[in-house]
């Protein structure tokens, strides 16, 4: 019998003996599936390990996320790059102040109850919403997944931070989100809701103030306000404490170098170095000295613990000063409106 005939007869009698060889060969020939995004497989592995979530479901979410050049462009030109003289007018407008007054007066009972509960002045809760999202009107148009995938996988300068935020987002329980994860929208940096909370802030500070078993920072005003107040309280806000006050240097004032967010010296030490307060303050109050480029030249400010707390929300001293001045303007407006009634 010819050799090729014997081979055919063997295969026809025992086909199953060759099956493992064929399957193995096919397996070796198939290329490994590539990540949709660089580093996706490692991230999915970590989240699945830490939460027990399905890798297939996690990959399905990340596969639909898109790298957006517009997000990379936006993060390269933050408002905080402007001088104070240009930054302040963005947030301290007549419209933003008037709308803050109206918001405070409309929701006064809820605001003051939450403020008392957390020991945080209500006008500062309102000012955060005013600076962040114009009292909930502008919460962001970007898909949160797109934002965090873009910055976590395609933005080397801060990839470590944003990758961690993406990991946290994927790990959050469903009842910590305003809706399905793939529908959430927010800022170009992936912040969500009226208070623009990043995923780790949702995890650590967001509050279910309504007691409905869900944290909704987009649609529940009690959750929104209580979460901002809780954020401040957990970072050390002192009820009734000072935030910032103007300082007047004399001609021989000691140069102090770069501003430090955390208060460095008792106020009386800065006075001894030539910086006089415009108002009466506790001479032992810990403070730092901040200089900003104002419209009329340099502005010197004493900044206190509560100012430092605002910088835990956003590290820019100009951001903290805008929140402070908006809060003061809102409170002045509320008191004026109360007197008219």
From TrEMBL:
<feature type="domain" description="Transglycosylase SLT">
    <location>
        <begin position="43"/>
        <end position="327"/>
    </location>
</feature>
<dbReference type="Pfam" id="PF13406">
    <property type="entry name" value="SLT_2"/>
</dbReference>
<dbReference type="InterPro" id="IPR031304">
    <property type="entry name" value="SLT_2"/>
</dbReference>
<keyword id="KW-0732">Signal</keyword>
<protein>
    <submittedName>
        <fullName>Lytic murein transglycosylase B</fullName>
    </submittedName>
</protein>
<dbReference type="InterPro" id="IPR043426">
    <property type="entry name" value="MltB-like"/>
</dbReference>
<dbReference type="InterPro" id="IPR023346">
    <property type="entry name" value="Lysozyme-like_dom_sf"/>
</dbReference>
<feature type="signal peptide">
    <location>
        <begin position="1"/>
        <end position="34"/>
    </location>
</feature>
<dbReference type="InterPro" id="IPR011757">
    <property type="entry name" value="Lytic_transglycosylase_MltB"/>
</dbReference>
């Amino acid at each position: 019998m010819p050799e090729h005939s014997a081979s055919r007869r063997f295969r026809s009698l025992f086909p199953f003996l060759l099956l493992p060889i064929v399957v193995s060969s096919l397996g070796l020939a198939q290329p490994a599936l590539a990540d949709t995004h660089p580093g996706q497989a490692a991230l999915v592995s970590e989240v699945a390990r830490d939460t027990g979530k399905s890798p297939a479901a996690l990959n399905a979410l990340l596969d639909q996320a898109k790298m957006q050049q517009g997000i990379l462009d936006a993060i390269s030109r933050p408002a905080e790059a402007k001088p104070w003289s240009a930054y302040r007018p963005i947030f301290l407008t007549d419209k933003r102040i008037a709308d803050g007054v109206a918001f405070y007066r409309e929701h006064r009972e809820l605001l003051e109850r939450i403020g008392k509960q957390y020991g945080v002045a209500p006008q500062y809760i309102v000012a955060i919403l005013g600076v962040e999202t114009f009292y909930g009107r502008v919460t962001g148009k970007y898909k949160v997944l797109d934002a965090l995938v873009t910055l976590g996988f395609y933005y080397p300068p801060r990839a470590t931070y944003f990758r961690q935020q993406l990991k946290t987002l994927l790990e959050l329980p469903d009842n910590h989100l305003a809706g399905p994860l793939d529908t959430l929208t927010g800022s170009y940096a992936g912040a969500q809701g009226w208070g623009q909370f990043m995923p780790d802030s949702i995890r650590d500070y967001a509050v279910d103030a309504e007691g409905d078993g869900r944290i909704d920072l987009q649609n529940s005003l009690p959750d929104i306000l209580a979460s901002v107040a809780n954020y401040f309280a957990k970072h050390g806000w002192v009820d009734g404490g000072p935030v910032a006050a103007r300082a007047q240097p004399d001609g021989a004032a000691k140069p102090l170098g770069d501003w430090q967010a955390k208060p460095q010296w008792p106020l009386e030490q800065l006075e001894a170095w030539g910086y006089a307060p415009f108002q009466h303050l506790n001479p032992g109050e810990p403070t730092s000295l901040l200089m900003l480029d104002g419209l009329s030249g340099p502005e010197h400010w004493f900044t206190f613990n509560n100012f430092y707390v605002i910088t835990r929300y956003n590290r820019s001293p100009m951001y903290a000063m805008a929140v402070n001045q908006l809060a003061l303007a809102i409170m002045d407006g509320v008191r004026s409106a109360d007197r008219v009634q």
